[in-house]
Structures are given as C-alpha cells and as structure tokens.
Amino acid sequence: MKLLYPDLYLESIYNLDFDKLANKGIQGIITDLDNTLIAWKDEELTDYLNNWFQEAKSKKLEMCIVSNNQNSRVHKFAEKVGLPAIPNANKPRKKAFKKALQELELPPEKVAVVGDQVFTDVLGGNRMGMFTILVVPIDEKEFIGTKFLRLLERFILRKVSKQS
Ligand SMILES: [Mg+2]
Q1: d(CA 78, CA 18)
Q2: Which of 14, 41, 50, 75 is the most exposed place for a label (fewest CB within 10 A)?
Q3: How far, in Å, from the CA of 89 to the mean position of ligand 1?
Q4: Greatest CA separation found in the chain?
Q5: How far, in Å, is the centroid of ligand 1 from the Cα of 59?
Q6: 36 CA to middle of ligand 1, Å?
Q7: What are the structural domains, with CATH classification, of the chain?
Q8: What number of CA atoms fall less than 13 Å from residue 10's CA on the CB side?
Q9: May I ask which residue range the UniProt record assigns to the signal sequence (predicted)?
Q10: Edge-to-edge, what's the strand order for the sheet holding 131-135?
C-alpha cells in the first residue's frame, strides 16, 4: 500500500519548489507528459511551461520525459524542449525508469518522479526508490475550471436578468 503514496502531492508542476528538491539532494526529474506537463490532446509548448523548464535548468536539475504514450507524440514534444524522452514506457514497470536513470546519469535516490497517475507514475517511482510527486491531472483542472466558469456565467446572467 505504501507504494501507492506519493512523497508530495501538488496541484500542479508550477507549485514545485526546485530549491526544496535540491535541498533533499535531488538532481534530476523524470516527468510524465500527458496531463502532467500538457493536456491529453495538446501539443503546444506555452511560454509558461517553457519558463518552468528553463528554471529547472538554471537550478541544475537534469530532466527526462518518460511517457506511456507513443513515439511520435512524445518525441515531438521532447524535441521542442530539447530533452531526452522515453515513450511506450509501460509504467509502472521498471525498465523505462532504469533507462531514464542512465540518461540522467544519476542513482534513483537523487531523482524525483513527477506524474498525475498513482498506478503508473507514483507506483513506478516508489518501486524504484525515487522521490515521488503526484500532481492533479490537467484535464481535471480544466474540467473544474469550465464548471466554475459555467456557474459564474449563470450567476451573472441571473443578476443581469433581475436588473432588466
Ligand atoms: Mg499522465
């Protein structure tokens, strides 16, 4: 059961404190792609996300993308950000994580895994003895965002109709 608990649970990758990670001795990050960095159907690299990568780089954190998604999508994104990537990863299986560690040239205890899924990212990372960080899936946040906007819309419409 303990293997399913992340060491850290955050709303988004943007809440990740790189300095705190560094203080724990973390020197590398293995990150999931879909719903962690970008939405499922998205491909765009926003300035916001690009800045996040740049900040990690400036803090000397090595990164590698490990995704269960297929080659073309993963490599296309990885090329945009200039990072190594391992697609078709079959997380939570260890093979791709081991490959990523080789890519990063770091031992597991110096690497954090970031992802939105307990049974792939967290379980896989914990099995490897890495620091695990779970984030809320981007799609879910967008869904909540949409719901909130709808509520706000209705609220405003009601106010407007009362006035008229
Ligand atoms: Mg994911």
Answers
A1: 20
A2: 41
A3: 12
A4: 67
A5: 24
A6: 5
A7: 2-138 (3.40.50.1000)
A8: 14
A9: none
A10: 8-10, 131-135, 111-115, 28-31, 62-66, 85-86
Give distance in angstroms: CA of 155 to centre of ligand 1: 34
Higher-pLDDT residue of 8, 41: 8
Polymer length in residues for the chain: 164
Tokens 């890495």, located at residue: 130
d(CA 43, ligand 1 centre) in Å = 14
- How many A from CA of 138 to the centre of ligand 1? 9
Residue 28 CA to ligand 1 center (angstroms) comes to: 19
How far, in Å, is the centroid of ligand 1 from the Cα of 154?
32
pLDDT at site 141: 74
Round to whole Å and give the CA distance between 34 and 137.
8
Per-residue model confidence as pLDDT tens digits over 86-129 = 999 999 999 999 999 999 999 999 999 999 999 999 999 999 99
Cα of 32 from ligand 1 centre, angstroms: 6
Rounded to whole angstroms, the Cα distance separating 4 from 152 reads 36
Rg (C-alpha) for the chain, rounded Å, is 18
